[in-house]
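>> Question from a student workshop board

For tomorrow's exercise we were told to take the sequence and the ligand below, predict the bound structure, and bring the output to class. My setup keeps failing. Could a helper post the expected result so I can at least see what it should look like? The ligand is calcium ion.
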Amino acid sequence: MDQKKVLIVEDEKNIVDILRFNLQKEGYETLEAYDGTVGLKLALEENPDLILLDLMLPGMNGFEVCKTIRDKGRSTPVLIITAREAEKDKILGLDLGADDYITKPFSIRELMARVKANIRRVTMVQSAEPPAENRLDFGRLVIDKGAGFAAKDGENLELTQREFELLTYLASNVGKVFSRQELMERVWNYEGYVGDVRGVDVAIRRLREKLEDNPAQPKYIITRRGAGYYFQKD
Ligand code: CA
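>> Workshop helper replied:
Here is what the output should look like for this input. Compare the format with yours to find the bug.
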């Protein structure tokens, strides 16, 4: 198995030291950036398997780094490390395309579990499946699991990795309602996750914005009040 590469973008040297030590101990290759500008450069040039991104950085802040990475069409998993408790920062981060966040001070064990889950998720998607089952065709909407993209009316929806997996998971189970908790466990790979499941709502909202003709009146991703979400054929 090839060595996975993790980019650490963080200006506090002692935190970088702890992260590097633990990541290398687990067999990851590490890259480091101490400001946002260098972080962005490495993210684009080195194409890491995951980015650990601090928000408060000199130069360019973490929000801008994350947004730019997504604007460039990169779907690299981004795990935000934030000292901020403010809910709006977390939601904004997810809104700008981050996959996950963890609040300082964090436990190394929790962080490593998140790193592993986010990398495993991508690896699972990339591993080949039999071609016949690789395509979900709903007429206007086509999901190509093998190639990893979804298109509507022939146009690539340009989903992030997470959005793509969420759509694929729901669309592979037409009509079946999944709770936020279930989606957290199955799409996010957080086994027994009991934390904040609002990330699911944010991801659903972003997905609808790209997928639906009218995101306010979704035709594909439907909310079952008090229960969760399900996919229906248009
Ligand atoms: Ca910082």
